[in-house]
Amino acid sequence: MASVGLPALSCRSSGEQVKEIRVCTNRTCRRQGSFQILETLTALAPPELRVTPSGCLGRCGAGPNLVALPQGLLLGHCATPSRTAEILFSLCGDGGREASSSSAVADALTALALTNNALSQIDAGNFLEAEALLTQALELKPYGGLHRIFKHRAVAKLGMLDYCGALEDISRALALAPNYSELYICQGDVYVAEGQYDLAEKSYLKCLEIDPSLRRSKSFKARIANLQNKVVEVDAT
């Protein structure tokens, strides 16, 4: 497994695409902040890149550690969101810009901060404020994570009862990430709110097709139960 520094990271010139980044979440790296790094990578990654937790990568003194696959590039000292964004852009960013482009990294981090703020606003029920923040994030055109930002904005628009706007954002996200299961959950939620129960069922089933493990999710089970109750109510009228 190769260990490299930031200037040598890019695999794009060789034509070999990075398909997965694993983040060590073992004890030492966890104490050094690897869970924050895992969250940052997940939020910023393009849809074709898998980001997963990993066991020990064998370099506990240089953590938090990542490994890029299938290249086997071992990357250490990934202790800050800035360092993480630089690594991600070097591996997967826009080939038309410099691999270490400070503006691209800054835009990605700013978009991430806006998105995190928006999620807090959604949790507080401040959907209009969340929608504005997510629109600002999208205007920055970060090199990764756009599908997630569109999904979050769809949730905010659903909270605002803007069903058409929510479905538009879901469609934009699906064009970028057709196998992102959370989009179909959100789509199903919008259809339930609109009373389009047949379409909601199709969206939820598509979600399960992509990620069967969701059958065990309490929140997903609650959605299915709510949908079934809605259908029973309609049939009873």
From TrEMBL:
Entry annotated with the keyword Nucleotide-binding: no
Keyword Secreted among record annotations: no
InterPro entries to which the protein is assigned, alphabetical: Thioredoxin-like_sf, TPR-like_helical_dom_sf, TPR_rpt
SUPFAM superfamilies assigned: Thioredoxin-like (SSF52833), TPR-like (SSF48452)
Keywords carried by this UniProt record: TPR repeat
TPR repeats: 181-214
UniProt protein name: Uncharacterized protein LOC104782516
Gene name of the record: LOC104782516
